[in-house]
Amino acid sequence: MNKMQHMVYGIGNPLIDIIVSVDEQDVIDLGIHKGTMALIGRERMEELLQLSKNRKTTYSCGGSCPNTIIALASLGVPATLAGKIGNDENGTIYRNRLVSLGVQDELVTTDKEMTGSTVILITPDSERSMNTFLGANRLYEESDVRESTVAAADFFHFTGYMWDTQSQQGAIKKALSIAKKNNTTISFDLADPFAVGRYREPFLSLIKESCDIVFANREEARILFDNYDPYECCRSMGKLCRTAIVKNGKKGSYICHDGVITAIPVKGPVVPVDTTGAGDVYAAGFLYGQYHKLSIQDSGIIASILAGEIITQRGAQFSNEKAEELRNLLGSGAWRSL
Fold first, then answer.
1. How crowded is residue 53: how many other Cβ atoms within 10 Å of its Cβ?
2. In which order are the strands placed within the sheet that holds 117-122?
3. Mean pLDDT of all residues in 114-132
């Protein structure tokens, strides 16, 4: 199919993010493993919502893949998001927010479940602990995938979070099949250490058989390859796919492309305000560079710059003013001198 639309297409979990500032003791009292994502039920969600009433709290559209797609759209890249929402107020808020952000949506509405949400607990060290109630996301299925859109896209992006239900897996496998037939570049973000722990072998097969670009942070890479050295993990992943990326926190990142490893320096503050969405925005930056046919190193630098920008603020999305500033920075080429 002729790719006249030139866009990035993502299938993910649209979630209303509820960001709560907490103390270390709150996390301990709740029995939460700090810095990870946990899937929770309604009872746990109600407990966390009760806590949020007594803490500083903000709300925004979220979800790992949606964060990446929203960031791309804010930078002027045509981007489409697919997923499932409930027929409720949060679903309406989410869809309207996407419109305001310039994201095309292929969200499917269901009456069977409420829109998913994530309570993100931010401790004083800026570490985030995510507690996700998937809700309607669990029901996303093969029949929800619009074949023509996947086929027309330049890039198809998804994350490891989509492996948590059989119906979501089926939808992704269908999209992967369509993407491969139409030479759509396939981008996969492992997204969460626990997801890698649950699906290590399937993810290794998935990377080798279907993916062109793969993102992992050092902990996800460690679990995937049973190796504490991010550089070696990047080398190992680079043997499975064309472009392997391992993010190493404050030490920058490594990108292995066609067997050659490039070190990307960190860009941004030493002490972050909030690390929520940093990996998602890094992915957006790299895909931005590849969409514009920049080199691997330049794409990595842009990814690092954007990740460095997002951690200076609360939440995983840029304001309209900041997005305009970044579009001008990237468009002018001034980013090269940062």
1. 8
2. 37-39, 128-133, 117-122, 15-21, 57-62
3. 90
CA distance 315 to 302: 19
Dist CA 249 CA 251 (whole Å): 5
Contact 280, 292 (CB under 8 A): no
Question: Hey, how many other C-beta atoms are within 10 angstroms of the C-beta on 328?
Answer: 11
The pTM score is 0.90
Q: How many CB atoms lie within 10 A of CB 2?
A: 7
Q: Which two tokens mark 307? A: 């990740």
Judged against a pLDDT cut of 50, whether residue 1 lies above it is answered with no
* C-alpha span between 42 and 135 (Å, rounded): 9
How many residues are recorded in the chain?
338
Type of residue found at 218: R
- pLDDT tens, 84-97? 999 998 899 899 98
Burial code (b: 16+ CB inside 10 Å, e: under 16) for 234-259 equals bbbbbebbebbbbbbeeeebbbbbee
Encode pLDDT of 161-180 as tens digits. 999 899 999 999 999 999 99
Quick one: how far is CA 124 from the chain centroid?
Answer: 23
Q: Which two tokens stand for residue 322?
A: 């900041």
* SS3 (DSSP) at 315: coil
From 114, 115, 110, 117, select the one nearest 143 (Cα to Cα). 110
Nearest CA to 49 among 74, 24, 30?
A: 30
Amino acid of residue 79: A
Inter-CA distances, 270 with 8, 129, 291, 302, Å: 31, 20, 29, 18
Half-sphere exposure of 322 (CA within 13 A, CB side): 14
CA atoms of 240 and 266, how far apart (whole Å): 25
